[in-house]
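Example for tutorial group B:
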């Protein structure tokens, strides 16, 4: 069950959580620290909902996963768990996510519930469009809206910029991730930005990351962040450039290694927001 929820691969939980923590901290009154209990709630929510998303994805993709070397040993295609068992586990995780949501204010509850549509349609997008990474970006960064709403009961311009920046950040790192499977995906008819962009992928990843940091800068400006935040954005730029220079998109191990570095990317921006609150 834990493998079905990717508990052995926590990076997905971090990538889901960082936009929440950015927004919670940025939306908190200047000079004040974000509410610790709220951050813990969102961490639990990220664990539940990331696990639920992975479980749903594995149920829907069970036939495709059995044809791809990297995913063939996942619990459902390898017959370690039945589809019915996986569905029951999905319901339990969604119940945990609902419990977290009910701890928030009514407006935040509406915002949180609105993300379920994206979670449901995402697994089907790789069959329809070469841009499923864009849909993943819309889904994974919804926490920017939810975190902001949980603190203020509203969604302000800073949250919109933060969300949009997160979408382009995800487009970049998940294009790197998709290059792991491009040969298998081509063989079985699955679409991705890795296949769409091909040899031009590095140029586009650079473009996605550039747009992301511009939007993160605009989020800081709109919400009254100061020099420490902008310093964090500057370090984020250096880290993202390092990723692009380091990754070999024709080497699966290199793609996975650089994709995982985005845990630190999220931490760098959080440190900027948090430091700005302190100072």
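The residue assignment follows.
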């Amino acid at each position: 069950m834990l493998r079905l929820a990717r508990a052995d691969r926590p990076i997905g939980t971090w990538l889901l959580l960082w936009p929440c923590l950015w927004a919670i901290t940025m939306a908190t009154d200047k000079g004040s620290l974000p509410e610790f209990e709220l951050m813990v709630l969102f961490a639990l929510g990220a664990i539940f909902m990331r696990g639920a998303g992975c479980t749903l994805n594995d149920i829907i993709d069970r036939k495709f996963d059995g044809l791809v070397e990297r995913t063939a040993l996942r619990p459902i295609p390898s017959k370690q768990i039945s589809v019915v068992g996986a569905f029951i586990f999905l319901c339990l995780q969604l119940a945990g996510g609902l419990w977290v949501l009910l701890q928030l204010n009514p407006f935040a509850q509406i915002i949180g519930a609105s993300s379920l549509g994206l979670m449901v349609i995402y697994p089907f997008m790789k069959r329809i469009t070469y841009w499923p990474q864009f849909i993943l970006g819309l889904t994974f960064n919804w926490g920017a809206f939810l975190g902001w709403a949980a603190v203020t009961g509203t969604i302000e311009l800073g949250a919109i910029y933060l969300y949009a920046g997160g979408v382009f950040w995800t487009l970049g790192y998940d294009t790197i991730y998709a290059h792991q499977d491009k040969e298998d995906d081509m063989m079985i008819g699955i679409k991705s930005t890795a296949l769409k962009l091909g040899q031009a992928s590095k140029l586009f990843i650079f473009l996605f990351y550039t747009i992301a940091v511009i939007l993160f800068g605009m989020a800081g400006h709109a919400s009254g962040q100061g020099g420490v935040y902008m310093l964090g954005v500057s370090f984020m730029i250096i880290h993202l450039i390092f990723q692009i220079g380091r990754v070999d998109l024709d080497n699966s191990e290199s793609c996975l290694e650089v994709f995982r570095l985005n845990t630190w990317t999220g931490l760098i921006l959080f440190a900027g927001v948090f430091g700005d609150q302190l100072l």
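The chain has a mean pLDDT of 91. Compare this with the pattern of hydrophobic and polar residues in the output above.
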